[in-house]
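Ticket #4471: complex job returned nothing on first submit. Input attached below:
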Amino acid sequence: MSTHDPGPAEGAVELRGIVKRFPGIVANDNVDFSVARGEVHALLGENGAGKTTLMSILSGAYRPDAGTVSVGGRTMSFRSPKQAIEAGIGMVHQHFRLVQPLSVAENVLLGAPSTFRLAGNATEDRVAELAEAYGIRVNPSAKIWQLSVGEQQRVEILKALFREASVLILDEPTAVLTPQEATHLFSIMRRIASEDRAVIFISHKLDEVMAVADRVTVLRAGRGVATLTIGESDKANLARLMVGREVMFRVARSDHDAGAPRLTVKGLIATGDLGLPALRDVTLEVRAGEILGVAGVAGNGQRELTEVIAGLRPAISGTVAIGGRDLSASTPAERISAGLGYVPEDRLGTGLIPSLGCIDNVMLKRTDEFARGFFINKQAAEAATSELVDRFDVKTSSLHSPVSLMSGGNIQKLLLARELSAGPGALVVAQPTAGLDVGATEAIRRLLLEQRDAGVAVLLVSEDLDELLSLCDRIAVMYEGKVMGVVGAAGADREQIGLMMAGTASDPA
Amino acid sequence: MSATTAALRPRLVKRLLPSRATRLAVRIGAVAAAFVAAALFLLLAGNPIGPVFSALWSGSFGSAYGQAQTILAAIPLVFTSLAVAIAFRMLLWNIGAEGQFYFGAFGAAAVAYAWPEWPGPLLLTAMVLGGMLGGALWALVPGALRAYLGVNEIVPTLLLNYVAILWVDYLVNTAWRDPESLGFPLGVPFSAQATLPQLGDTAVHAGAIIAVIAALVIAVILRKTIWGYKIKVIGENRRAARYAGFSITRNIVGVMLLSGALAGVGGMVEVSGTVHRIQADISPGFGYTGIIVATLARFSPLLILPVALLFGALITGGVELQTIGLPSDIVLMLQGTILFFALAGELLVHYRIEWRRQAQTGSEGEPGAAGRAHPGAMPSGT
Ligand SMILES: Nc1ncnc2c1ncn2[C@@H]1O[C@H](COP(=O)(O)OP(=O)(O)O)[C@@H](O)[C@H]1O
Ligand SMILES: [Mg+2]
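Support reply: We reran it on our side without changes. The output follows.
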C-alpha cells in the first residue's frame, strides 16, 4: 500500500487484521483493507475468496473474530447493520431487500432516520432530486414490482445515499445487468466517488475492475494478497494475483463447419412458474458441431426454454425435435434416450442430489445401465463413477460422501461428466460456469468446446456475454421470451448484443 | 462495545450430521427419559409408580407368557410400521395402515371362507395373497388420487380407515357372522388349515417369521434394487427425479400399493395366527401405533423390528395394568411421551443450542444467504 496512500483522511475506512472463521473454514485470514474518500476501490477475488464476508463485517452484519474496523479514524465495533448505517456505511447486497408493493420513493424512505414523514409528492420530489443529483435513472413513483432488476439495484443505491452513506459497498452489482446498465452503474459510481464519498466495488470480473476502479485490493482464499492502483496493474497480473497462477483468457477454438440441424425448436410458447408468459414463439436451430449461445438478462425466458426442451415444463404450443425426430409429446426419459443431455442451471437440486454421493448421482441418469435384473450392479456403478471422476478430474474425498460437500467447480464437473458420458447428440447447458472459480471455468469451457468439435449440438445459455463470445459459433439474444435475433459470434458487436438484450433492436443477420 | 448490557438468549444452530452412534445413543436416551418423565407424571397424578412399572414388566418381558404376548403384539406392528416407513421413504404419509390392515384381514378371511378345505400351505399362501390384495386395493385409491390429481394422501388414507373398519363390522354382523357367537360381532372360526401354525410349543405363531422376512425384503428392496434407488431419489428430491426421467406418478402408485399390501399381510397374519377368525376390533390401533414405531425407527425396516417389540411390550403391559386395576391408558401416555422425547432428541441431534448476546441475534447469517444443503432429518442408507 505504498502508492497513493491517502493517510487517515476523514471518512475513510480502515480494516486491520480482520479474521473471520466459519465452521471448517477461515473466510477472512488477517485481512487489511483501507479505502479513502473520493475513490472507487475494487475488491477482487474468486468465488469464496471472502469478499462478501469482509464487507459484511464492515457493514455490521458479522462481527470479526479478530481485527479492528475504523471509520473516519474512529474505531468501531458494530453490533448490527443499523449501527453501521448510522456510521455512514451503506451496502447493496447481491439479493435486494425491497418491498415489492411499495413505490420507489417509499422504499427509499423506509427506515430512513427522518423525524417526520413527508406526504406523497414531497417524498417523491426529494427522491427525484437525489436521483437527479447522481444521474440515476429511475421513476420515483413506480412500484418496485414494475421495475427491472437493474432499476431495483438503483433503488438500493438511492436508499443508501438517502441515509447519507459516506461509504457505499456494492456486492457483485453487475451480475444482474446488461452491458448498458453496467455502464450506467459505473457512471453512477464515479459520480458518487466524486462527491467525496467512497465506493467499494466487489467483483470477480477483471474488465469491470479495470474500467471503473481507482485502486484494487485482491483477496485470495481469505487473504489479502495485494492492493494496487489501476495504473500499475493490468488484467494479466490481476488474474495471476486472484488465482495464484497464470491464466489463459481465451480457450482455443478450432474452426470447422457445423453440420446439419440437430436440435430444433419451433414456435415454442410456454408460461413461467407464476403462469405468466415466459416463451413467446421461440424458434431456434442448433446444428451438429456448433455451439449456439443464448444471451439475455436473467429472467427473460432462458430457464423456461431449457426446461421445455428437456421435457420438464409443458409447452402450450410449438415443437422440439432432435435429429429430425419430433419429441414434443415425449417424456423426459424418452428425450434422454433420444440423446439429449442437459446441465440445468440448478445444479444441486435438479442436476444432482446434494445429500447423495457421487455414485448415486452418476446413477441418476444411467439407472438402466447399472441394473442387473431388479438389482443394482454396485460394482459397475462404482467402477464407472471412479472412471468418470478420474477422467474429468473431479476432486472428492470419497465417492460415497454427499456431493454437497464438494466445491462448486467439482460439482459442476461431476454433473457435466455424467451428461457427457451418455454420449449425447444434443447438449443443453445452462449457466455452466456461474459462480465457479477461474480454474474450473476454464476446464468446463474446454469440455464444451470438445463436445462441439466432436459433433455435438450444444445450446449454451449464459449470462456472461464474454463467455458466449469466446465459446459460441452463433448467439441468439432473448428478451421477454422472444428471440430478438441471432448473430454470428465472430466479430459480433457487444453494443449491438447489449441493445438486443434490452429489447430495443433486432438484428437482420 | 457494551456487551454486558445485552442478555444471553438461546438459539438453535444447525450442526453437521453426527455419527450413527451418537444418533442411536440419543434415541435410546430419549426412550429412557420418556420413562422417567412418565414416572414423574404418574407420581404427580397420585399413582404408585412401583406397581405400575412392575406390572408393565411382568406383563411384557418378565414372564414366559408375557414374552409370547409381547411378540404376538409386535407382529402386526411390524407390518403396519413397514407400511408407514416405505411410504415415508417417498415422503408420503400413509395414515391408512389401520384400514389397510382391516382390508387385508377381510381379503384373507374371504379366501379362508371360500376354500376352507384346501391344504394348509396352499390355503395360507392364498390367504397371504388375499391379504396383500385387500390392503393394496385400500391404498390404491389414495395413491392414485395423490399421483394423478395431486390430492394430499393424509386425509383420504385416514378417512378410508373408518370405511374399512365399518365394512368388517358389517360382515361379521351379517354374512360371516358366527351363529354361535351369542350376538357378539364375531365371524365364523377359521378351519384348521386356515390357521397359522405355532412355533414349537410356544404361543407364538409363524407370523413372527413372516414379519422378519418382510422386514428383510423391504430392507433389500430399499438398499439393493433399482426400484429402491428410485424411491430414495424421489424421496430426496422430486425435481431431480423428474429430471432423470423417473415417473413420479407410477412410483407413487407403486409404493402406495406395496405399503397397503404390507399392512394387509399384517391383517392376514393377525386373523390367521392370533384371532383365528375375523371379527370386529381386530386392531387396537396397530395402524396408528405403526406411525410412531416407524418414526422412532427412523423409517428403517430393520430398526422397526426392535422398536415394534418395545411397543408390543407396552401394549401387553397395558393389559396387565388393567388386571391390577389401573387404567391401561397409562400405556398410551407412555407411547406419546416416548415419541415426544424422541422428536426432541432428533432436534438435538441436528441442532445445538447456543447462548448468545441478544443484540446479535437475527443479524448473523443474513448476508450472502449461503444456503447450505443439509441431509436434514430424512432417512438415509439404513
Ligand atoms: N454464513 C456462512 N457460514 C459458513 N460459511 C460461510 C458463510 N458465509 C460464507 N462462508 C464461507 O466463507 C467463504 C467465503 O465466502 P464469501 O465471503 O461469500 O466469498 P465471496 O463473496 O468472495 O464469494 C466461502 O468458503 C463460504 O463458503
Ligand atoms: Mg460474495
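The first strand of chain A starts at residue 13 and ends at 22. Closing as resolved unless it happens again.
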